[in-house]
């Protein structure tokens, strides 16, 4: 799946551990149609069908998504925040505002105290990976 930045498509590696599980409620007739397409070999399984349908809708609205990303000034893809970056920000008296569409990951070696001292806000459209202690420390700053 691709994301865009400055007219360039960025690829995000998809693996089992990088994906998020969601629950979708479907009417029996819709589920039956999906099963029929799977049985006839159009899709490997239900998940393959649902992922394809989601990607098709994202592609269909790609222009609107690009405009929204630019308007909201979001970083695309994977944004990793490590201890060294946060210590440098603290030394400069600077606070970070994480605005990510994709995956924001705060390194395991970041303490809750360092995160709280250097991260002013977190807005993630996608997923946030951080230790439970860091998430708790930033609870009031996560939108």
UniProtKB/TrEMBL annotation:
InterPro entries xref list: RHH_8, Ribbon_hlx_hlx
A Pfam family per the record: RHH_8
Superkingdom per UniProt: Bacteria
Designated name of the protein: CopG family transcriptional regulator
Lineage: Bacteria, Pseudomonadati, Pseudomonadota, Alphaproteobacteria, Acetobacterales
């Amino acid at each position: 799946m691709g994301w865009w930045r400055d007219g360039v498509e960025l690829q995000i590696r998809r693996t089992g551990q990088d994906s998020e599980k969601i629950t979708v409620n479907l009417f029996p007739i819709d589920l039956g149609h999906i099963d029929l397409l799977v049985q006839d070999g159009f899709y490997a399984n239900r998940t393959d069908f649902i992922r394809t349908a989601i990607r098709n809708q994202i592609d269909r609205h790609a222009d609107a998504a690009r405009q929204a990303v630019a308007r909201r000034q979001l970083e695309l893809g994977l944004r990793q925040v490590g201890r060294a970056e946060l210590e440098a920000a603290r030394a400069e008296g600077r606070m970070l505002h994480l605005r990510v569409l994709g995956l924001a990951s705060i390194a395991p070696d970041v303490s809750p105290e360092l995160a709280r001292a250097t991260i002013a806000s977190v807005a993630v459209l996608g997923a946030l990976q951080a230790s439970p202690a860091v998430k708790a420390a930033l609870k009031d700053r996560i939108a």
